């Protein structure tokens, strides 16, 4: 059997369509796929910002027409290009496993020198959501080499390779940074043709993977939608093998939020539904502004306990008062990449050429204030949350066996093949008021396993224990804590 696949002609669209076709043909031996490249309205006009274009479905309408007319049998779209209202007669036949929904900021090779001058940093994007979220984030996340960086946003359209080339230009067209969807880079890098083009374009650029808790992606970002005619039962059956039900459920939830707040190409908020270790259901993060311009900031955790009327002890507020920190004489090596469990763990003589990741935004901002470049973080969800991300070939990071982990002496287990460097130890010296508040608490939020080990004997026997996902939850469960709830305690 032969099916005609309709897609845009961009490098990314063709790359992800090839990946879909390969998976489909592997599942159906003997199936042939014919590619039909289609130039859409959004491809013909790459100058106007998306939010200024009045046409509905600027990247999909031309493809929809060919699908409805029978000129093609199915279409491959980036999910975030689809509107919330689709033409009658078309149906989403499958949503394959979703890629990470992160945005990434890519900066020109001399960005550190530019930051030292104090001039404004010019960032290219045409997405209202990114214009809403990115400037505030970068002001605290970029190295503070000459005070708080100034951020200037500039319009930017075009295919991935076109946008990346703007980082090599001079004069009026020069940009210091651009914002892209990481999933697009990842899929293009996984394609043989795309990787050849990206390899030189990405050379020497500085990366930042934007945290989901501050800059979530567009609803549906990272997902592909496979569409077909509603009445074409045979094609729908063939395409059904591509569907990944958990991804489809995530996307439907994010689109429900989009419908509730309003948006499309004009939407100024991002949404991320994330699955976390030690938690049965995903956490929903919404950040930005709705179509009326009102701030939207929601974090929905299913089955979260009701704290109303409860006395709460929050370990993160007491952490630095509980423990005295004693630095150890461990020296950093020459690893190409490193992870700091917190900002205090990083040695003063840290190699600035090492690609640095951290546990969460508090550590990121502390290190940026020291003038250090941080590439990404675990959003306070634990290191396991980013294991798959940092292994993505598009990031060109070394394998974990070539990383160095900076942490304290009692947290050296569970890092896999990485080299662990204990740079300090914690000596418990809790003040009396801390212990009194802990003993009276109905709800106790532990911020680390070490905190629990030092202080749990002071807790009321009927207290509810709460901790974040990752190593802390693993430890508390191993200690037999029964009255335990695992929630994201954002860093």
- The SS-based structural class is alpha/beta
Widest sheet: strand order?
15-20-19-16-17-18
Number of strands: 23
Q: How large a portion of the residues is in β-strands, by DSSP E?
A: 15-25%
List the total number of helices.
16
Summarize the biggest pleated sheet.
6 strands, mixed
What is the overall silhouette?
globular
Indicate the percent of residues in helices. Answer: 25-40%
**What integer is the average pLDDT?**
92
CA(first)-CA(last) distance: 53 Å
Determine Rg (CA atoms, Å): 24 Å
Low-pLDDT windows of residues: none
Describe this structure in words.
The chain is α/β, with parallel strands linked by helices. Strand 21, helix 15 and strand 22 form a beta-alpha-beta unit. 44% of the residues are buried. The longest helix has 17 residues. It is built from 16 helices and 23 strands. Among the domains are: 117 residues, 3-Layer(aba) Sandwich (D-Maltodextrin-Binding Protein, domain 2), CATH 3.40.190.10; 187 residues, no CATH class.
Features:
D-Maltodextrin-Binding Protein, domain 2; single chain; globular; 23 strands; 5-stranded mixed β-sheet; alpha/beta; 24% strand; 16 helices; 6-stranded mixed β-sheet; 491 residues
């Amino acid at each position: 059997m032969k099916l005609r696949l309709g897609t845009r002609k961009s490098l990314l669209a063709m790359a992800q369509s090839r990946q879909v076709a390969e998976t489909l043909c592997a599942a159906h031996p003997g199936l042939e796929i014919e590619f039909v490249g289609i130039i859409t309205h959004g491809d013909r006009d790459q100058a106007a910002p998306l939010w200024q274009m009045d046409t509905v479905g600027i990247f999909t309408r031309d493809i929809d027409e060919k699908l409805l007319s029978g000129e093609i049998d199915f279409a491959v779209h980036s999910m975030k290009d689809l509107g919330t209202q689709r033409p009658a007669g078309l149906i989403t036949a499958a949503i394959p496993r979703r890629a990470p929904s992160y945005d990434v900021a890519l900066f020109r090779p001399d960005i550190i020198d530019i930051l030292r001058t104090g001039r404004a940093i010019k960032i290219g994007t045409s997405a209202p959501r990114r214009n809403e979220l990115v400037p505030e984030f970068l002001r605290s996340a970029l190295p503070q080499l000459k005070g708080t960086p100034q951020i200037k946003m500039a319009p930017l359209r075009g295919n991935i390779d076109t946008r990346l080339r703007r980082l090599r230009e001079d004069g009026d067209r020069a940009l210091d940074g651009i914002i892209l969807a990481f999933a697009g880079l990842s899929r293009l890098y996984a394609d043989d043709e795309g990787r050849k083009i990206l390899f030189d374009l990405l050379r020497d650029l500085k990366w930042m993977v934007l945290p989901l808790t501050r800059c979530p992606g567009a609803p549906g970002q990272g997902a592909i939608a496979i569409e077909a005619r509603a009445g074409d039962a045979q094609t729908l059956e063939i395409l059904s093998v591509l569907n990944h039900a958990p991804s489809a459920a995530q996307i439907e939830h994010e689109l429900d939020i989009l419908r509730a707040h309003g948006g499309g190409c004009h939407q100024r908020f991002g949404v991320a539904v994330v699955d976390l270790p030690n938690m049965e259901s995903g956490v929903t993060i919404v950040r930005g502004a709705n179509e009326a311009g009102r701030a939207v900031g929601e974090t929905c955790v299913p089955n979260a306990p009701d704290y109303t009327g409860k006395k709460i002890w929050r370990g993160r507020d007491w952490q630095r008062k509980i423990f005295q920190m004693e630095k150890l004489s461990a020296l950093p090596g020459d690893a190409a990449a490193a992870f700091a469990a917190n900002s205090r763990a990083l040695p003063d003589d840290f190699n600035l050429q090492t690609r640095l990741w951290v546990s969460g935004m508090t550590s990121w901002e502390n290190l940026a204030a020291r003038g250090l470049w941080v590439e990404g973080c675990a959003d306070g969800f634990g290191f396991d949350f980013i294991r798959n991300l940092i292994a993505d070939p598009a990031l060109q990071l070394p394998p974990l066996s070539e990383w160095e982990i900076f942490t304290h002496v009692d947290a050296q287990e569970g890092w896999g093949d990485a080299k662990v460097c204990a740079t300090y130890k914690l000596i418990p010296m809790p003040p009396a008021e801390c212990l009194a508040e802990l003993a009276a608490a109905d709800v106790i939020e532990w911020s680390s396993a070490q905190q629990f080990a030092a202080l749990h004997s002071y807790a009321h026997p009927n207290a509810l224990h709460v901790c974040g996902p990752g190593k802390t939850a693993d430890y508390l469960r191993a200690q037999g804590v029964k009255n335990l709830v695992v929630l994201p305690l954002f860093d």
